[in-house]
Amino acid sequence: MSVAPQPVFPLRISPGAQSPLELWLGIECTFNRVGDTYLNQLEQSGHLDRPGDLDLLAGLGARRLRYPVLWEQVAPDSLDCPDWRWTDERLTRLSTLGLEPIATLLHHGSGPRYTSLLDPEFPEKLAAYAGQVARRYPWITAYTPVNEPLTTARFSGLYGVWYPHHTSDESFVRMVLNECRGTVLAMQAIREVQPLAQLVQTDDLGRAQATAAMQPEADFQNERRWLAYDLLCGRVGPAHPLWAYLLASGAATEELLWFGDHPCAPDIIGVDYYVTSERFLDEQAEQYPERFRNATHADIEAVRICHQTVGLGALLRETWERYDLPVAVTEVHLGCTREEQLRWFEMVWRAAEGARAGGADIRAVTSWAALGSFDWNTLHTSFGGYYEPGAFDVRAGTPRPTALAGLLRTRAAGGVPDHPTLAAPGFWERPERLFYPPVGSPAPAARLPPARPLLILGAGFLARSLAQLCRERGLAYRQWPSEVLNAPWAEILGAFGEAGRPWAVVNASGYGQIDEAERRARQFFQTHVVGQTRWASACAAQGAQFLTFSSDQVFAGESGAPYTERGTPSPVNAYGRAQWQAERRVLDACPGALVVRSSGLFGVRESRDFLSEALGTLQGGGQVHLDLDHHFSPTYLPDLVHASLDLLIDGESGLWHLVNQGESTWGDLVGTLAERLGLSRQQVRPLTALPQRQVPRPRYSVLRSTRGQLLPSLGQALDHYWTHELTPLFL
What we know:
This protein is of the alpha/beta class. It has 23 helices and 27 strands.
């Protein structure tokens, strides 16, 4: 077998608990099988073809990177013909960058087609592959042969979600035994080449709470979560709490005792912790939505029903006390809005520091999914484009650092992050998280210093939506009417103190007022160009960020192709001219400003919007006359606001196009929704049958972005609108 070029990479044994807490990183690299289809997260994220990602990751200052050397990718057809080209390039680059890899050989997979988690020869085949990896890369000193063996066995053998799609205790137990035996044999093969190689064994650190009736099941699950670690540590014998269960589920006495004769305790126990890791079990399943029910009970995130969860700090101490082995948090990720991602990581980091202060040997905290992850909302059973950013957002092709990247750099350098959004509690600590009558005693209210607010200028539908979503996201804000745009310079500067030293100002006034701008062009220009430019200048002077919204109306509509940020504006109405002037003047006055262009908006949460009013008319048997000629990018208002706030928190600047990907006319949009209600599209009549509007508008103003398509597709946006806004009104 050939050997890859050997980089200079000194062996490093992780320090003890008295050394600083380390930052590690991870790339979401699930390569699992559903039916006959393999789903490769590396391909979906684009990392497969972007070697430059490694330089970006190294720039965050982490010490270690959980990195894929995946069996299914290297040797998909046979162990006799591995293809090392990709891993040669990437691992050599990591060595050059000084970012130490923890090599993952299997990540939620069942292996290539010539094996599976139920294959009796799976352990030996995995070990053979591990030996090949070690001989090719003898300088690698840390391995995770099987990521989350217990979790993978649950999904593949107990729940039937992943291949081989079994749903029995017998299959679950067989898979766990195969994975753990494979891990032992793999580490033996690796250590024949690299005797000091570390086993970093990961799994989800779940814990269940329950009603009194379901407490026995919770007790069983709370014991089962340790099974893979217990097997590897040689702790499973006749006195083990799961011994009878394992035998009843098909395990043989001799194969269980084999682990005691071949202990392979992890050098570092890796615990993965998500907001879904802690569960609550309730026999009253009918009280919960169907997605939380199984045959005997409801199983829901504890954070949604418990006043107090156990919490990561207690779980880390429990892990340390049970095994007396070094512990690392090996996955930290939250698919949520940006400030919640920051708060979640900080909560985990502080919990790890607290456990260390109590004497536990906690080595590191890992920012998982540093390049984001795709379609975990469907448990990685298909790829539909649902993306959760991480430290980087890959939707622009070239990964774009988010606010989380800055936080990670600060932690890696030993600093304390000070992003203004961190002053507020995360949603998992706020009362509104509780969807059901809560159980347990409320936690004492935390006393936090007042958070610096956002200042929202305007009182229209866009400003109201911003205020509503700020409340939902736990973002402190103040809202002032659009009249303040006309305030003189001295009053604007004084307003910053009056508003509580806002860290950002968001101008949401005047959006969509096309007819108003035409009727009162001079006044509109004075307020929405001159006035907001003064506010942008004040933000630059005060060190605050500035966000404003512009429109597709800056374009003439003569192109047959979508307009990007590089398109040349040529407005045909007063509103478009004012918006174009405002864009230029704001960016001149405040080069760090964020200018978001969007299009026609739908979805006003507090009341009926234009579309719902039209549908109400159709449902009553009437007709509506709508534009069937002007093609634009209909955009769901909550999508626009969430993405704009995320970009603001990221510290982004310059011009962005934010629209739902797709195009339509108002008439076609109403017709599509009408058909969902079982109404006839023929009730939507063309506007050309009525007198023409006086204000000219572009005939084609579809927008696209060269900086990244951050909003869902128009189809997905309509699904959300249908579910959250139309269904309560019409069904």
